[in-house]
């Protein structure tokens, strides 16, 4: 009988806890909705969105310039390593090899 009592107590506690948890979830959800609908929060969100839209092209250009610079540096390092190879035939065989393609241009951010 003690196992049955334990099982019933566990089930009752589970049901009571689930109901309390659901009630708390609904409270949190209502509070979040109230905050999201607040005009001051809406205004701040719009300002943040406008700032991102304004700064995105500048950031994209900086990232593109950095990527082009990094690609150039890598290309130079590869050329130095290939040009200074220990086997003379190796260096001659790769001297006329095509350069790696340039990285693709960053897509415009809108």
Task: Characterize the structure shown.
With 110 residues, the chain is an all-alpha fold. The protein is 80% helix and 0% strand. It is built from 3 helices and no strands. The N and C termini lie far apart (69 Å). Residues 87-92 have low confidence and may be disordered.
Task: Annotate the secondary structure layout.
Blueprint: H1 2-36, H2 39-83, H3 88-95
Main traits of this protein?
single chain, 110 residues, mainly alpha, 3 helices
Beta-strand segment tally: 0
**Biggest sheet overview:** none
Distance between the termini: 69 Å
Q: Radius of gyration from the CA trace?
A: 32 Å
Mean pLDDT: 83
What is the number of helices?
A: 3
3D shape? elongated
> Which structural class do you get from the secondary structure elements?
mainly alpha
What is the gist of this entry?
The protein is built from three helices and no strands. With 110 residues, the chain is mainly α.
């Amino acid at each position: 009988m003690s196992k049955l009592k334990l099982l019933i107590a566990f089930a009752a506690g589970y049901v009571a806890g689930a109901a309390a948890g659901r009630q708390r979830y609904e409270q949190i959800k209502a509070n979040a909705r109230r905050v999201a609908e607040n005009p001051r929060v809406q205004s701040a969100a719009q300002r943040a969105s406008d700032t991102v839209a304004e700064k995105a092209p500048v950031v994209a250009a900086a990232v593109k310039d950095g990527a082009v610079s990094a690609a150039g540096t890598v290309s130079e390092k590869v050329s130095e390593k290939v040009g200074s190879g220990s086997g003379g035939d190796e260096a001659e065989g790769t001297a006329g090899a095509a350069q790696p393609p340039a990285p693709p241009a960053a897509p415009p951010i809108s």
